[in-house]
Prior knowledge:
The structure holds two protein chains of two kinds.
Chain A: H1 2-32, H2 39-55, H3 61-84, H4 92-114, E1 128-131, E2 134-137, H5 138-160, H6 162-172, H7 174-179, H8 184-206, H9 217-231, H10 236-256, H11 262-276
Antiparallel strand pairs in A: 1-2
Helix pairs in contact in A: 1-5, 1-6, 1-8, 1-9, 1-10, 2-3, 2-4, 2-8, 2-9, 3-8, 5-6, 5-8, 6-8, 9-10, 9-11, 10-11
Chain B: H1 7-23, H2 27-52, H3 60-78, H4 82-104, H5 109-129, H6 131-134, E1 140-141, H7 157-179, H8 182-192, H9 194-199, H10 204-230, E2 232-233, H11 240-253, H12 260-274, H13 282-296, H14 300-321, H15 327-337
Antiparallel strand pairs in B: 1-2
Helix pairs in contact in B: 1-7, 2-7, 2-8, 2-10, 2-11, 2-12, 3-4, 3-5, 3-10, 4-10, 8-10, 11-12, 11-14, 14-15
Amino acid sequence: MDVLFQQVLNGLTLGGVYSLVALGLTLVYGILHVPNFAHGALYMAGAYVAFYLMGSLGFNYWIAMAGAAVAVAVLAVVAERLVFHPLRHAPGLHHMIAAIGILLFLESSAQAIWGADFHRMQTPFTGILNFAGLVMPVQRLLIVIAAFALVVALHLFLKKTVTGATIIAMAQNRDGAALVGIDPNRVAMLTFAISGVLAAVAAVLYAPINLVYPGMGHLVITKAFVIIVLGGMGSVPGAIVGGLIIGFAESFGAFYISTDYKDIIAFVLLVAILSVRPEGLFTKGVR
Amino acid sequence: MKFLDSKTGWMLLLALAIAFPFLAGNDYHLTVMSMAYIYAIATVGLNLITGYTGQFNLAHAGFMAVGAYTVGILTVDHNVPFWIAFALSGFVAAGIGFFVGILSLRLKGHFFSIFTLCVGYIMFLLIEKWESLTHGTVGIIGIPAPSPIAGIEFESPRAQYYLVLFFLVLSVWVMHRIVNSLLGRTFMAIRNGDDLAEALGINLMRNKVLAFMLSVFYAGLAGGLYAGYVRFLGPGLAGVDHTFDMTMYMLIGGIGTMFGPLLGSVSMPWLTQYLQFLQDYRFVVFGPILVLLVIFLPNGVVGTYLKWRARNASRPAVEKTAPHAESANAQAAVSAAVPVAPAQEGSHA
């Protein structure tokens, strides 16, 4: 029972982080139909900015998180303006290669500034909660709560505000949205900013129980891709459900199968599911 | 540059490549060039599936590692002679490519790329974790050099250079034959439009899988050569960053052209050599270059040249048939005749 609960908590932690990253990715895909390979680099940049703000400038955890969110949002918007906007009429291959260019640039920049070493991020939440015989590290609890609060906030923003509705309208039909007076540029910038904020927050939440290094985004972004392919590209609920599926599959797989192979589980799951259903789990129709 | 389009141009290049060891100052230059050739073979393969067939395969480096590990495991752990293991390397890669292909090619566009990205990761993680087979992170050490054939030894850097060059020439020649055959035209038809190709009676799945297998055969072969040349293998070889490297070579030279991937993969390592001080940070420079290229020069060096030449060639023709045509009309006719991207020319350049 105790062990089972531990795995559930682990699954929720991982699932929360993956969902946040996948949400940013799926929003951008919905608007621009670009698989943003650079999203993992934004995640990495978020962790490094927070690491810098906390380590070198001595800010506290929450201010560092906010600072990282703002910095990465700006970075994402700049990337949209300078790279994806000029390419909006180009064929799909070019977006992917351009995104790879951004990814390589951000990663090697981080390596040039902070070196290739692994860093540990400090957190004020080092305690462990004991509740009815269950052991819960506070940081993990924080990840779960923060991730789900953000997901709910994003959902309310998309459904209840006019600005949020413009994003959904744009994802549904680009020309139609433009016809009713929605500015595509503004929506694209807004979407990239939101995806940057989500990536940065996910990184700052997850970094204290992981490590900070230039390649930290690789596995997370690849898993986020798995998630949005499973959940349907551009689908918000799909990203959340997919994130939880992968999170649980990994935490239970690591425990019941093998820790060595836990990173493969997500990919094998994708290969297995797409072999049977090439259209993904939650999508209708053919790609 | 007209001579570069003909057989003479290719012969001149070959002569230069053969003369290179006598012009090169030292063995180090030979090593750089040989490695560039090995990557050129893999890049030529990547160009077949990405440039000619229009499917961006992100697991290409994984297949190169499959070929390399085939040679490494067979020669070191099972004492198989180098040449037999080497002959198998391409086929093992193509065999795995068949199964990956029939799964992944059911997906289109972005989904195919994402799927192959995941396949590449599975390959990388398997190589890293499956210690009993691949020696894990320690890597495979002590791969023998290619054994002598007909009294020719492949121990010296110069002999190895010629060996690699031989396979490069062979693979480029075979690729040239493929691209200019009906099969090559079929692949290009698929790139230009799935539906259109299907309407022409092309079996999409069979041809895509064939292109995929041929492409990863090149990767496997390059991997086999890599194993014999470097004689040490680590899981890093399967890393997606190597696929990114090859993509960069292909794009800079000209995607979907014969000469482009060669130009890119031979010139870029030299540029990196001259930017020695950048070594680890070379992508601070190359990342933005890649982005700028995609935006401003999407056809690469060779593709842009071909487009410019096609425009020049068609100008007199247009003027002759329509002497009073506005130049704007001529321009429109030309740009309609020359698709924008990726470059179409499967010709000698």
